[in-house]
């Protein structure tokens, strides 16, 4: 109850919750010395999360697209009323693309507004469309951050205080576990927008997001930034396919301990195991292997990886060394 400058305002309200659903019911009465009759109104509001239906075992396609439904109704007990229906949810499983829908009605007029927001690797973008008795309105907004590094322009989420620039040499679409929206762009760069100053910050890549032709031996880096600094977190990625080649030559299987390297790139090398197989990473689609069996004997084996083979995590293939 409130009394201010001869205006009496009385409000009674009650609310309760049941398994995430909220309800509220209220009565408002307002009167003043120069009005013969008080202005009375009754209102009702409720909000229902879709998790209520999921927990109750009621599964529909809408459960994945709608997060909450809200409804409000108010009447002055004289025939005039207003109502509002609100729905918000997500259009994808990762909740990066969200939307909101509001429909309201007051007396004989009505209005509707729709907004869509996209939080992604390049920042946040929003679009809003509205219509009411005054007409139409459309708004667009975008926020984000940008870093210029080694002739590269890297876009990302808005940068606050200290941040990190991730470099994974030309490995694209690799997710960063620190931020759900962050993944490397086509040049292998990404931005972590917020770090803790003067503390060790753990930056980790998600191995499940690696393409089949990318291998990163150390997917975790710790960085310690100063105030408002940008630190470089560089991961050494080996770009190429992973293959287990089973090598044969004129005498049978290649013997254990033979050394194998890719012609033209000695960094791609390994040793033959007891069953004549060799595991190599960072391979191009086509190449030739040099096999040193002993000081006096060597051979070469060419290979070609088909489109179906390049879709596999590890390619298993037999080769003849001549």
UniProtKB/TrEMBL annotation:
InterPro entries: Fimb_usher (IPR000015), FimD_plug_dom (IPR042186), PapC-like_C (IPR025949), PapC-like_C_sf (IPR043142). Residues 244-306 form the PapC-like C-terminal domain. One of its GO terms (cellular component) is cell outer membrane. One of its GO terms (biological process) is pilus assembly. Gene3D superfamilies: 2.60.40.2070, Outer membrane usher protein FimD, plug domain. One of its GO terms (molecular function) is fimbrial usher porin activity. This is PapC-like C-terminal domain-containing protein. It comes from Photobacterium angustum.
């Amino acid at each position: 109850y409130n009394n201010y400058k001869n205006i009496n305002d009385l409000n009674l309200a009650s609310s309760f919750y049941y398994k995430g659903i909220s309800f509220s019911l209220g009565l408002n009465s307002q009167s003043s010395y120069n009005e013969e009759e008080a202005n009375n109104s009754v209102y009702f509001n409720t909000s229902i999360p879709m998790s209520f239906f999921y927990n109750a075992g009621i599964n529909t396609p809408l459960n994945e697209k709608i997060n909450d439904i809200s409804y409000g109704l108010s009447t002055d007990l004289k025939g005039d009323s207003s109502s509002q229906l609100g729905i918000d949810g997500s259009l994808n499983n990762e909740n990066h693309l969200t939307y909101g829908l509001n429909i309201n009605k007051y007396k004989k007029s009505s209005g509707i507004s729709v907004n869509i927001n996209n939080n992604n690797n390049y920042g946040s973008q929003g679009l809003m469309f509205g219509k009411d008795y005054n007409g139409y309105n459309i708004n667009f907004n975008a926020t984000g951050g940008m870093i210029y590094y080694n002739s590269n322009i890297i876009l990302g989420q808005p940068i606050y205080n200290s941040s990190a620039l991730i470099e994974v040499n030309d490995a694209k679409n690799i997710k960063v576990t620190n931020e759900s929206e962050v993944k490397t762009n086509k040049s292998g760069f990404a931005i972590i927008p917020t770090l803790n100053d003067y503390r060790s910050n753990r930056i980790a890549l998600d191995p499940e997001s690696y393409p089949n032709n990318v291998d990163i031996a150390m997917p975790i880096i710790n960085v310690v930034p100063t105030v408002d600094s940008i630190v470089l977190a560089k991961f050494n990625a080996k770009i190429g396919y992973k293959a287990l080649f089973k090598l044969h030559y004129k005498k049978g299987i290649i013997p254990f301990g033979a050394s194998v390297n890719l012609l033209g790139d000695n960094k791609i090398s390994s040793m033959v195991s007891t069953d004549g197989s060799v595991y190599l990473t960072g391979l191009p689609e086509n190449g030739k292997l040099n096999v040193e069996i002993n000081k006096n004997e060597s051979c070469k084996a060419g290979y070609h990886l088909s489109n179906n083979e390049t879709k596999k995590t590890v390619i298993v293939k037999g080769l003849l060394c001549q």
